Amino acid sequence: MLTVFDVLKIIRINHDQLDTHQVVMTQRDGKPNSVLTDLLTDVVTKTRMFVDLEQIHSSSELITTLREVTPLPEEVLTEYEKILGQPVVTINFATRKGLVELVYDEYAY
Fold first, then answer.
1. N vs C: which end of the chain shows fewer Cβ within 10 Å?
2. pLDDT at residue number 87
3. Can you give the pTM of this predicted structure?
């Protein structure tokens, strides 16, 4: 099963990485999860500021690199690690909304 990290590595829109405002975390019942979406947006934003994702091969490598190059507290990095490891059960391209929905099962993790 793909994780959020895997999706960030492989999904491209017009040959570019996902825009932080294009991706949302959505529950299986279609409800967006704003807390997880905000966390994901924060992870992607910090990653783009400090790390070349093309050079990273795993979520643990990303966390290690962020630990080395940022002053982020350990609690924040722990939350980043959780969201990056979250299994994605479906990817929904909501073209009318202009969003990519990463559908997760809260019980799969």
1. N
2. 95
3. 0.90
